Every structure is written in C-alpha cells, then in structure tokens.
Amino acid sequence: MIGISKNIDGTELKVFNNGTIKRKMTYDWKEIKNSANQSKGYNVILINKKQYMRSKIIINAFLKIPLDDKSIYICHKDNDKLNCSFKNLEIKKKMM
What we know:
By secondary structure, this protein is mostly beta strands. The protein has one domain: Homing Intron 3 (I-Ppo) Encoded Endonuclease, Chain A. Helix content is 10%, strand content 39%. Strands 1-2-3-4 form a four-stranded antiparallel beta sheet, with helices on one face. A two-stranded antiparallel ribbon has the order 5-6. The chain is globular and about 45 Å long. The N and C termini lie far apart (37 Å). This is HNH nuclease domain-containing protein.
C-alpha cells in the first residue's frame, strides 16, 4: 500500500492508493470512514467547512491534478462509487 502526505486547507492527510484516507488528529491518525454520505452515493470529506469528494483527493494526491479543476470528472471503472482505489479511478475530460 502506497501512501502520500497531503495538506488541504491546513488539514494533514495521509492518502493511500487503496482509497483509504487518514486525518491527523492531535496525537494520532484517524481513518476517515468511507461510506455514502452524499445524495448520489459518493463519499464526501468535510475539511474546514468545504466538501471534497474522496475520489478527487485520491486523484489529486497521485496525479497532482488540482482539487478545483472543473474540466475533469472521475469515473469508477467498476461503477462502485465507494471503491476509490487509485486503480479503479479513471479521469475524463468534460465536453465544453
């Protein structure tokens, strides 16, 4: 399992290629639960009152694509919206 450290809006995260994300707490790291918490069935992570899709954080960590890039969308190859392993994610360009 490969992990990358990320800082998003002052929040320290460890992002792993299997889709796991851990948040730095005061004394330890806590895994952020991967469950459907958004109306379309995706997992959204709240950081400083802003929502980030788990899949977008994974893509940002491993491919350095900006979190605010609206020109792309992320597809789950197996159609499981909660399977955010890096190998299951595919980037598509939005048609303008």
